[in-house]
Amino acid sequence: MNRRTFIETLGVTLGGAAVAGTLGEILDAKLAAKPLHAKDVTEVPINLQDNPELANVGGTYHLEYDDLSRDILVVHVAKDQFVGVDIKCTHRACEVSYNPDEKNLYCPCHGSKFDVYGHVLVGPATVPLQYYHAELKGDEVMVTVFGPDDKVPATCIAPPMDTTSHVPVDSSQNK
After folding, report:
1. Within 13 Å, how many C-alpha atoms sit on residue 101's CB side?
2. What is the DSSP string of 126-163?
3. E-strand spans in 23-96?
4. Among candidates 167, 48, 160, which has minimal Cα distance to 104?
5. Which of 29, 38, 70, 160 could form a disulfide with 65 if both were Cys (CB 3.0 to 4.6 A apart)?
C-alpha cells in the first residue's frame, strides 16, 4: 500500500468514525458502507432484522444510495440468495416490481419483463437492468454499489442469459 492510499484510507476511517459518533443510526447504511478497490465502489449493508420485508424469500427492499445516485431493488430470490437491479425500467423509467411466482421482474407501465439478473425477457425494453451483487453475510445483505463513472465490478456482471434456471426453488418460502 502506498502512502497516498494509506492516508486516504486513514482519512476515510477517521472521518467515518467522527460522523458515526455524531449521527449514530441516522446514516446507518452510509456509515457502514465499506469502500472496495474502485473509486466509488461500496458495499452497502441492509440489516434483515431492521428490514423484515427482505427477510423472507420473495421479499424486496428499495435501496436508495444517494451518494452514488443509485436506486436499487434488492430481492430475496431463494434461501440465502439475494440479487439487486436498477429499480427503473430501461424503457420509460417506471419502477419495476418482483413477481415471486414467476421469479422475474416486471414493469407495470408497459409490460417489460426481466429475469432476476436484469436481462430482458419481454419488451418493449431492449436494454437490461443494471445488476448489483448482493450477498448474505451474517444478518446483513451486502449490496455492491458503484458510481456511474466506475467500471462495473466483476461481481456485478450478470450471469449468462439463461439465468432463471439457476435460481433454486425454495418451497418453505422463508428465511
Report:
1. 0
2. -SPPPEEEEEEETTEEEEEE--TTSPPPGGGS---S--
3. 34-35, 42-47, 60-65, 70-78, 81-86
4. 167
5. 70
State which amino acid sits at residue 145.
V
Distances (CA, A) of 20 to 27, 111, 120: 8, 43, 40
DSSP 86-123: ESB-TTT-PBPEEETTTTEEE-TTT--EE-TTS-EEES
Question: What CA–CA distance (Å, rounded) separates 16 from 126?
Answer: 40
Taking only the tens place, the pLDDT of each residue in 64-104 is: 998 888 899 999 999 999 999 999 999 988 999 999 999 99
Q: 123: which 3 cell numbers? A: 419488451
Give the chain's largest Cα–Cα span: 52
Please give the C-alpha separations between residue 62 and each of 46, 84, 91, 101, 110, in angstroms, as whole numbers.
Answer: 10, 9, 19, 19, 21
Sheet harboring 131-137: ordered strands across?
Answer: 34-35, 42-47, 140-145, 131-137, 81-86, 70-78, 60-65
The C-alpha cell of 159 is what? 450471469
Q: What's the whole-model pTM score?
A: 0.70
φ, ψ of residue 26 to 5 degrees: the values are -60, -40
Question: In this structure, what C-alpha cell is assigned to residue 163?
Answer: 439465468
